[in-house]
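hiii, so i know i said id send this last week but things got crazy w the move. better late than never?? heres the sequnce for the chain we talked about at the cafe, plus the structure i predicted for it. fair warning i was half asleep when i ran it
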Amino acid sequence: MDDLGLVAWPPEPIRTERLVLRESEARDRAPFMELLASPQVHTYLGGPRRRDELERETPAVPERRPGSFVVDLDGSMIGLILLRRATGHRRPAAAGKADLGYLFLPRAWGHGYAAEACAAALGWFDGVLRGEPVVLTTQTANVGSMRLAAKLGFTEVERFEAWDAEQWLGMRPPPLRVAPRRDRST
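okay and structure toks below
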């Protein structure tokens, strides 16, 4: 995995109580294009892409690259989780760190799927790249994304103006390692 270092890709599918995080497949092309063309999904992301443009540019198996997880519910794609190295990030506090991104189809909103899927992806990340923080950027106007960031353990690093809106940069520190206890009775 170029973006995140020497991590074997793709990993085995990650299973949660309700979801599977897996590598993209050909059957994901239509929901992938729906995701990128959705005005609701892209309200805080600069607007949707044009469907005809997506038809021309989307490969048969979309987003099949290291760090990309399809979020699958009952055999259908409902979202996408991205973990990438933020090498070109605009903010120095985020540069070079792993960056979490996520997109979900509107029909999947409000069910806790994003929290469940992001927590699973972060758990996987913590297992393969121990000791690394993760950053997340969202618009402050995106209240749902701000709530999710807090739920996942991200805390504010800074706010800044970009793309004609106030942006929020949060960081999630790596999990603390607890040293094994020594038996003091001997």
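btw The longest strand covers residues 76-85. thought thatd interest u
miss u guys!!
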